[in-house]
Amino acid sequence: MTHSVAVVLIALAILLLIYAVIIAYLILIKVKQKKEVTLNQNDYLIVFASQSGQAENLARQTTQQLQDVGQTVTVTDIQYLTVEQLRQADKVLWFVSTYGEGDAPDTARMAIKNIFSEPAVDLSHQSYAILALGDKRYFNFCQFGQLLNQYLQQHQAQALFEMVCVDHLKQADVNLWTQRLEQLTQQQLTAVEPAQNWHCFILKNRLCLNKGSQGNPIYQIQLSYAEELTWSSGDILQVQCGNRLEDIQAFLQAQQQTVDDDLLAALQFKNLRQFPEQLPNEFFEDWIQRFDKLAIREYSIASIPEQGIIELVVRQEKTATGLGLGSGWLTEHAVLGQTIIANIRSNSAFHLKPIHKPLILIGNGTGIAGLVAHLSQRQQWGDQQNWLIFGERQQQFDHLYKDQIQEWQAQGLLPDVDYAFSRDQAEKLYVQHILQQKSEQLLHWIEAGAAIYVCGSLKDMAQEVEQNLLNILGAEQLEQLRIEGRYQRDVY
Ligand SMILES: Cc1cc2nc3c(=O)[nH]c(=O)nc-3n(C[C@H](O)[C@H](O)[C@H](O)COP(=O)(O)OP(=O)(O)OC[C@H]3O[C@@H](n4cnc5c(N)ncnc54)[C@H](O)[C@@H]3O)c2cc1C
Ligand SMILES: Cc1cc2nc3c(=O)[nH]c(=O)nc-3n(C[C@H](O)[C@H](O)[C@H](O)COP(=O)(O)O)c2cc1C
């Protein structure tokens, strides 16, 4: 070996050594970083799977509750959960809702594909509890919660306590969850509430928007308020349902009570159909205090704060026993000037992003509410590239927000509007057919960075729209849009 070859070899060896040292150092840092995010044995991992924000809201309140009593908690949306994170955790609290027809929320898609289909996950070291949100009016009550429970048990995780199912945001069900956590932590916890900030609104205006329609009447409801309130387009109003005056009077008469203003006020929002038995010697006033409140119903807000009014678009539901609880309260039972108790719920999954890209708005029926709120917001931001695709039955009777839409068209805010009035021609025409007909335009808009927002009925519209989007864009691109927050839905 010549001297120069030896020198080159030594230099190479030194370089290799330096490289090895750098790599070892980087690995060490990574291990250290990993250690820093490792959950300790007593830490809680909270995971939520939420479609319209309620499970997320309860998950965040529970996080606060536990942190207030000194517990260490990490909270994550299920769409960001990794197998490693799940494997690592010793105590997991799940907050999951059920959507569609017994389905998981959209945000759980990736977890179902990548985590729950993984057979070799050993969770025998892990304990867990599930708060499952659902609604008993659906056939598959809390089905996603049930399936998750089965999965965890199959993978040897141990339940801290039995799954708690919440029927349509019932406070009593949520209280049971808090009680179970109190037993678990041996600490007194603050209350967790589905709706937190109740405000008093005044029912200012009520206008039927579809007189002569073959469908149920749809009303524009306007609520005024005296406090400083703010919200984002896409948010939801949670309304405390109330009783008709005649029903309270009939109840008081049946109980042989004199009707007076105090009793009328005390019973305004109480459930008069199901109540606890009166105890011996219990005063009437004390007894009615113990009645449950009526349910909460949710409505998409159709206005933005700059308009200074909360506007809703409510379809009157007819049931076997009269009008629907929430829609009946807003469209008929509450009188003009009446106080409406409600809470504004942030619906981050349907918020707009101020990124000045084109926007495609698709909806039907009362779904117009969420769409017009977004258009008002886009007008505020000066974003003119908007395409509205809206469906109803007949143009003559069901052309909701016709004047407003025409005004926006004249102002250049809506360069593209397509209507699908299903009953105006022999062949049925729905919004999904418009998408099909205009697939070239859709691809062009998506290429230009457009986002798609869908609002209205899940079964009659949103599922078909999704199928057509899949056909036009393909599963991969639609999933990518979802991940980027460019495919958002407020469907019910
Ligand atoms: C995120 C979101 C946004 C929404 N936005 C709007 C909107 O902008 N506009 C709008 O009009 N609606 C909207 N809705 C729907 C709304 O919240 C109500 O579901 C709707 O008004 C019907 O409620 P109701 O109380 O009037 O009728 P309900 O009293 O709930 O009755 C509805 C139906 O359920 C049946 N039913 C009632 N109780 C039971 C029971 N215990 N078991 C079996 N069946 C039962 C009734 O017979 C009836 O057919 C939205 C829903 C969600 C989740
Ligand atoms: C379109 C739609 C479909 C639903 N399907 C079901 C269902 O199949 N089973 C059930 O128990 N609850 C069902 N629900 C009720 C929701 O689970 C319930 O409203 C829950 O509180 C929503 O929580 P989230 O906002 O976290 O998604 C459905 C609700 C909507 C709006």
Description:
The chain is α/β, with parallel strands linked by helices. It folds into four domains: 1-37; 44-185, Rossmann fold (3-Layer(aba) Sandwich), CATH 3.40.50.360; 199-345, Translation factors (Elongation Factor Tu (Ef-tu), domain 3, Beta Barrel); 352-491, Nucleotide-binding domain of ferredoxin-NADP reductase (FNR) module (Rossmann fold), CATH 3.40.50. 39% of the residues lie in helices and 22% in strands. It is built from 17 helices and 19 strands. The strands form four sheets. Strands 1, 2, 3, 4, 5 and 6 form a six-stranded parallel β-sheet that branches. A six-stranded antiparallel β-sheet has the order 10-9-14-7-8-11. A five-stranded parallel β-sheet has the order 17-16-15-18-19, with helices on both faces. Strand 15, helix 11 (368-381) and strand 16 form a beta-alpha-beta unit. The longest helix has 35 residues, at 3-37. It is globular, with a radius of gyration of 27 Å. The protein starts with a helix and ends with a strand. Residues 25-38 have low confidence and may be disordered. Residues 50-55, 97-102, 105, 133-135, 138, 140-143, 169, 458, 491-492 line the site of flavin mononucleotide.
